[in-house]
Amino acid sequence: MSHGNFNGRTIQVVKDLSLDEQWYLYEKTRQLKQELTSGSRAESFRIQNKDMGVYLMFLEDSTRTKESFRNAATFHGLKVNDFDVRSSSFQKKENITDTVKMLLGYSSESIFVIRSKQEGVCRWLEQSMGRYAEKAGLPKPAFINAGDGRHEHPTQEFLDEFSFLEFLGWDRSHIHIVLVGDLFHGRTAHSKVDGLRIFSSVEIDLIAPPELAMPKHYVQQMEKHGFKVRLFDSIQEYLSQSHIAKSWYFTRLQLERMGELVLDQSERLRKAVTFQKEYLSKVPETARFFHPLPRHSESPTIPSFLDDTALNGWDEQSRNGYFTRIIEIGMIGGHIGQDFHGERHKPLEFLDSFIEDAPLRSARKPEYKVGIRPVEHGIVIDHIGTGTETREIWEHIHKIRHILDLHMVSSQGVYRSVNNKHYKGVVSVPDMDEMDEKMVKMLAAIAPNCTLNMVKDSVVIKKFRLRMPPRVYKLDGLRCKNEDCISHPRNYEPVIPEFHRLREGTFVCMFCNTPHQYKEIWSSEL
Ligand code: NCD
Which residue in 474, 514, 469, 465 sits closest to 495, CA to CA? Predict the structure, then answer.
């Protein structure tokens, strides 16, 4: 794929398109929809390339997402491959990495549309198949996330935002929206955290009983984005106050993802988020209801008596899935995007330096020793785990030895620091003149805030403090705590876990974006 601003782009999360790029997608969709609904064949939007293939890999059930992608690919005249999970080698426990590698060889240019229970799968395939394609001389494949576990559903988000904009007459200045239903499992609700940023100001009300509440980290992100957030337990409670949104977004109760405990409570939970006839008089007349669909046939959160009312926004919304996905494939296929002039999505950069020079103090350091003798030449790692429990400091020491493979004649210990306030760990590494950058990075990741002391003729001649690095990866013992993450060992994919620092002490998994405290990125099995 060689042209356009978007060709070969992977969309794992909403943020993989910058806000300008999202707006471009909506504007193009608006033009396309106008043309198609006025009877034009919209020829200029079509890719028309029989060598380009779209693989539909739906490892979880789907109707709308799959069929709208299939029809969008057919619109473009592309080769559509429907991957049949039930008769594939997945049944023989083949992993997705091997499967996709094989499929890559069948088209000169490929777009994979993937729905999976495993979170972060498209990010992983972008990375691993990008490397593989380069080596094999194949064009870089693109991956579109069509819903990954409880994580995100970016293309649903794009059609949702397009539908809200249409409803609001293309006014981007403000939206007041209420999300109702299973906000805990609903990936379409989670994607709102980034998708709604297309509006300059956002008021968002969240209605869900505590068991189905939006996970805290999403609420925190919304607040960080400047959204005004309010929480309610039920529609009834929401309607008992007077500031009621015009845009309502309902989601289904995802019973298939709930444990026994919550299932027992399903009646009560449903009631809290199901719209009732008597609520009608309290909803603004100009309101519109949206829903990613499907609705539960026996107990839908939007009951069918509303189907033929002016509140019905979900039918048009579902149609919009076809239009937005035509444009998405057109962009990623390199056909649409030449006239894009806004700010492009920026790949991540890790610039901040984490090695600082530290002042030397002339105090004697009896703890810098080998056996009972002071270190004469070498390196001493000091201030390991300062301020934490002694047990934790010992764990840090063992981790350092194991991961950095430090198994020479040496000493280690847990001591009180000079001011006697804290405990700290010390490891001596005699006869080592310097540590290479890779080792220093590893050490900073394992024992952030430790110091590296260079000792010559029994005197510390140079000292560095190692801060938490911006990215932690390629180390034994790293593990995402989310069992549904593609990088979790239980999924048997050859993924190397990688974490990115958000703020001091908080890291996110680069595949599933689950936030972790620093301690949590390490497996307890080391
Ligand atoms: C949603 C999904 O699968 O995430 N549906 C969809 O894509 N149209 C929501 C759902 O299944 O509840």
Answer: 474
Amino acid at 445: A
**What is the pLDDT, as a whole number, of residue 256?**
74
> How close is the Cα of 157 to the center of ligand 1, in Å?
11
Q: How far apart are the first and last CA of the chain?
A: 43
> Rounded to whole angstroms, how far apart are CA atoms 453 and 376?
12
The atom of ligand 1 lying closest to the CA of 321 is: 8
247 falls in which pLDDT band (50, 70, 90)? Answer: very high
Q: Is the pLDDT of residue 258 over 90?
A: no
96-125: per-residue pLDDT in tens? Answer: 999 999 998 887 889 999 999 999 999 999
In this structure, the residue with its CA closest to atom 2 of ligand 1 is 147
Which of 152, 155, 157, 293 for a ligand 1 pocket mutation test, highest count of atoms within 8 Å of Cβ? 293
pLDDT recorded at residue 500: 95
Dihedral of the alpha carbons of 455, 351, 120, 509, in degrees to the nearest 10: 40
**Contact present, 148 and 491 (Cβ < 8 Å):** no
147 lines ligand 1 (CB under 6 A): yes
**Nearest partner of 54 among 123, 110, 121, 130, judged by Cα:** 110
Give the C-alpha separation, 496 to 489, whole Å.
10
Rounded Cα gap, residues 177 and 287, in angstroms: 10
CA distance 107 to 50: 9
What confidence score (pLDDT) does residue 2 get?
Answer: 44
Inter-residue contact 171 to 164 (CB < 8 Å): no
For residue 294, the CA-to-ligand 1 centroid distance in Å is 7
49 to 42, 110, 210: CA distances (angstroms): 16, 11, 50
Band of pLDDT at residue 1, cut at 50, 70 and 90: very low
Counting ligand 1 atoms within 8 A of each CB, the residue from 188, 190, 253, 254 with the most, and so the one to mutate, is: 188
pLDDT tens, residue by residue, 430-451: 988 888 888 888 899 889 899 9
Closest atom of ligand 1 relative to the 147 alpha carbon: 4
| Placement of tokens 């989601």 in the chain | 251
Residue 97 beta carbon below 6 angstroms from any ligand 1 atom = no
What is the model's pLDDT at position 229?
98
Residue nearest to atom 6 of ligand 1 (CA): 292
Instruction: Identify the weakest region by mean pLDDT among 255-264, 350-359, 386-395.
Output: 255-264
Q: Determine the Cα–Cα distance for residues 404 and 400; give it in Å rounded to an integer.
A: 6
Contacts of residue 372, defined as CB under 8 A and 6 or more positions apart, other chains included, come to none
Three-state secondary structure call for residue 57: strand
Cα–Cα dist 427/105, whole Å: 51
